[in-house]
């Protein structure tokens, strides 16, 4: 079964996203509308595929297109719900049901050790859970803007962090081949070799360490970690 999260599918075209948003960063409302548009497009292709120009039975493909369209509809609905939540249209519980832990600004300085840390920046699932939590009688409520008020966040999503890490690691691999290896005396453009002269795609530690230092200095990393998050103002 293909792994659709495989980074081998990534291309530079993925970063061409300005047409998806009015501002610098995409809103949840824009995500919801874009997903609904893609869903419709898939259903249109499925409908057209019922009568192809060449007589080929495409039922499995059509079913797959409609199934994927249904998944996109669910994602669009979720993004639309989250859009209303972050705009403050939906009341939210001030604490997670069952455990009573706060979230947002109120979670600063708290410790949710068994849940991966405080929910200062809540996940989509947590926000939907908090929206459902208001159904319990007597639940204290707030809104997303109220709960996040006063927060000065330098935040980056896990997916963005992973992408930056992959880009950094790829740059290190390129930098390795720019350098000479002091251990095996491999020239720039050559892979390292073992003591017996066999080629290895794994560079010697000192060569890689130098490459990492050079790349991290260029990218603004500190010890392999980003020292700053790209400005989103």
Account of the 3D structure:
- This protein is mainly α and 233 residues long.
- The protein folds into 3 domains: 15-86; 92-147, no CATH class; 158-226, no CATH class.
- Helix content is 42%, strand content 5%.
- It contains 6 helices and 6 strands, in the order H-H-E-H-E-H-H-E-E-H-E-E.
- A two-stranded antiparallel sheet has the order 1-2.
- A hairpin with a 2-residue loop joins strand 5 (221-222) and strand 6 (225-226).
- The longest helix has 28 residues, at 59-86.
Backbone shape: flat
Q: Strand order within the widest sheet?
A: 1-2
Strand fraction equals 5-15%
**Unreliably modeled segments:** 228-233
Annotation field: number of helices: 6
Topology:
Elements: H1 28-48, H2 59-86, E1 92-93, H3 124-133, E2 141-142, H4 144-147, H5 158-176, E3 192-193, E4 199-200, H6 205-219, E5 221-222, E6 225-226
Antiparallel strand pairs: 1-2, 3-4, 5-6
Keywords:
3 domains; mainly alpha; 233 residues; two-stranded antiparallel ribbon; 6 strands; 42% helix; 5% strand; disordered C terminus; two-stranded antiparallel sheet
Task: Give a quick rundown of the structure.
This protein has about 230 residues and is mainly alpha-helical. The protein has helices spanning about 30-50, 60-85, 125-135, 145, 160-175, 205-220; strands at about 90-95, 140, 190-195, 200, 220, 225.
